[in-house]
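User: I'm putting together notes for a lab meeting next week and I want to include a structural view of one of the chains we've been expressing. I don't have a solved structure, so I'd like a prediction I can at least talk through. The sequence is below, exactly as it appears in our construct file.
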Amino acid sequence: MTNAEVTVLIFTAIGVFFMLVSTYGILRLPDVYLRMHAAGKAATLGVSCLMIAAGIYYPDYLGRMIVLALVFFVTAPIATTSMARAAYRTAKPAEKLVLHYDELRDDKLRLDEAK
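Assistant: Thanks for the context. Below is the predicted structure for the 115-residue chain, given as structure tokens.
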């Protein structure tokens, strides 16, 4: 087994581990916000490691895979934040979390006061 194959195996194992942790978090966590946290953090690392492993296995595509991993690292947190804001805005009042400081509620109140 060559060094490249060992590296591919290590990156693949790390990626699969993070994807399994993400899956477990999505299935077991009780709240939509916690589920999105598990999906956003673990899946980002899992997909990135799998892309890097594919790039090492196919050396012609290594540059593309690194760029894709970087794009995924930039866009995944933005998408997760947008989904969390949408979930907060569409939740029924009884389902909302009780927070000591609620920045989204304050923002909405400011918008209502401006009208």
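A couple of points you could mention at the meeting. The radius of gyration is 19 Å. The mean pLDDT is 83.

User: Perfect, that's what I needed.
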